[in-house]
Amino acid sequence: VWCATIGVGPTASVRSSSPHRTPFTGARQQGGRLQIMSQLALGGRVLHRLSFHSWRGAFARRCFSNDGKPFDKILVANRGEIACRVMRTCREMGIKTVAIYSDADQQALHTRMADEAVRVGPAPATESYLVMDSVLEAIDSTGAQAL
């Protein structure tokens, strides 16, 4: 899960609940603090890769909205059955979804299930889904808070 937070820079750190535990994927223990290593800058936001166990603690609280949901809108960068399952779960949780699609997938089920859909390029995956600038632009234009 990628979670967007505001005001967290590339050297942001949080205290670990245990000196022996590193709850963040790609994080490194440094003097009782965790330094986030896996980040993508997007305008004024920074996207952090979180592991399942990292939903605890101070950093995780920044990712949750006032209603207890981890985020309000998620961009699903998968297609097919996996994307449909993620979108179905998000709908049950009250989270809006954004699908990305290539020309070949314009009428695909995952595109129709999503609350919003954004074209990221022509049919070949190397010219659409794998072009990170297109995916980041889709995140920015839709206001998705997670990927």
UniProtKB/TrEMBL annotation:
The keyword Nucleotide-binding applies. One of its GO terms (cellular component) is mitochondrion. GO terms for molecular function: ATP binding; propionyl-CoA carboxylase activity. Residues 70-147 form the Biotin carboxylation domain. It comes from the Eukaryota. Keywords: ATP-binding, Biotin, Ligase, Nucleotide-binding. The lineage of its organism: Eukaryota, Metazoa, Porifera, Demospongiae, Heteroscleromorpha. The keyword Nucleotide-binding applies. This is Propionyl-CoA carboxylase alpha chain, mitochondrial. Pfam families: Biotin_carb_N.
